[in-house]
Design a protein that fits this description.
It comes from Brevibacterium casei S18. With 246 residues, the chain is mainly alpha-helical. The chain contains 13 helices and no strands.
């Protein structure tokens, strides 16, 4: 007797859902399973459940029983806090788009760090379905391949070292990257040595303007510091001290 594919699929989903609820300490119907059922399902992932279903002959009421199990459906059996590697099983077109988007995103991340917003915008500019992009971003975040806090910390450190940016300039750059305000505040608060960094910038500019009139040197140093985002108080203080020394 041939098995109804729909019946078999429903039963697989129901069994996967059963395992997930048992692992989470579910109550009600799942808590009343006898010891034999518990032994068969404990320590078995969703793949094991599928395998046992394939070797079993579903009875006449299998489809109805599967439909009656809470949570049976397209997402049944998914562990809490995860996104399946191959979503959109009911839509080949979206599944194919997801696979291509995933490959593109991983290539981008291999080249350099991205914030979640930055990566999302790049994928959307490639005309990828927004639902696919949202699902993929969630998957990458839960897999720790996207972490805005770590991205912000590394980005701030790199910009501080290479471009000598002030705290306020770092804040503006992080806003452009789509980092939330709370994360930005925490990252910027960790940045210290503001006046020392301004002095380093001023001294370099002072060396390159040596021989020019004092007023010109002062204007250029102040302009450089202002463009890096240093406060007016630090700009004036450091400029006067550096010019007095050189």
């Amino acid at each position: 007797m041939s098995e109804d594919p729909k019946t078999l699929t429903d039963l697989r989903r129901a069994l996967s859902d059963l395992e997930s609820r048992q692992a989470a300490g579910g109550t009600g119907f799942f808590a009343r399973l006898d010891a034999g059922d518990a032994e068969e399902t404990s320590g078995t992932g969703s793949e094991g459940a599928v395998g046992s279903t394939e070797s079993a002959e579903p009875g006449p009421g299998s489809a109805r029983s599967a439909q009656g199990v809470p949570g049976a459906g397209p997402s049944a059996g998914e562990p809490a806090g995860t996104v399946p590697d191959e979503p959109f099983a009911d839509s080949p077109e979206l599944a194919e788009a997801y696979a291509k988007a995933k490959k593109t995103a991983l290539n981008m991340l291999a080249m350099r760090d991205h914030s979640s917003t930055e990566l999302r915008e790049k994928l959307l500019r490639r005309d990828i379905d927004p639902a696919v992009v949202d699902r993929l971003i969630t998957k990458l975040e839960r897999s720790n391949l996207l972490d805005d806090t770590q991205f912000a910390q590394r980005f701030a450190k790199a910009q501080r070292e290479s471009r000598k940016l002030s705290r306020s300039a770092l804040r503006r750059q992080l806003v452009k990257k789509g980092i939330d305000e709370e994360t930005i505040a925490g990252v910027v608060e960790e940045v210290d040595g503001e006046e020392d960094l301004a002095r380093e910038v001023a001294e370099k500019k002072a060396r390159s303007t040596r021989g020019l009139a004092h007023e010109i040197r002062e204007r250029r140093i102040l302009g450089m510091l202002a463009r890096r985002g240093f406060s007016s108080t630090i700009c004036l203080k450091v400029t006067r001290e550096v010019l007095a020394e050189t």
